[in-house]
Specification:
The chain is mainly alpha-helical and 66 residues long. It has one domain (2-60). The protein has two helices and no strands. The protein has helices at residues 2-32, 34-64. The radius of gyration is 15 Å and the shape is elongated. The model has no long low-confidence stretch (mean pLDDT 91).
Length: 66
């Protein structure tokens, strides 16, 4: 059970990081430059995505009752 939890958490973190970088590039490339926009998008994607993944997995674990 713990390995599935960790794999799901890792997948959520990686997905959030990549999605944040891509959205940062799409939104802020012209104003900030490619590297800065992807860096900021990755940072905020990582912060928000990690929190959302962790809370979501904890809620699902609590619902399941394990």
């Amino acid at each position: 059970m713990a390995s599935i939890f960790l794999i799901a958490l890792l997948a959520g973190i990686v997905t959030a990081l990549v999605a944040g970088m891509i959205s940062g590039i799409i939104i802020g490339k012209e104003a900030l430059g490619l590297e800065m926009a992807s860096g900021m998008g990755g940072l905020y994607g990582l912060l928000g995505g990690t929190t959302a993944s962790l809370v979501g997995l904890l809620v699902l674990t609590a619902i399941q009752g394990v």
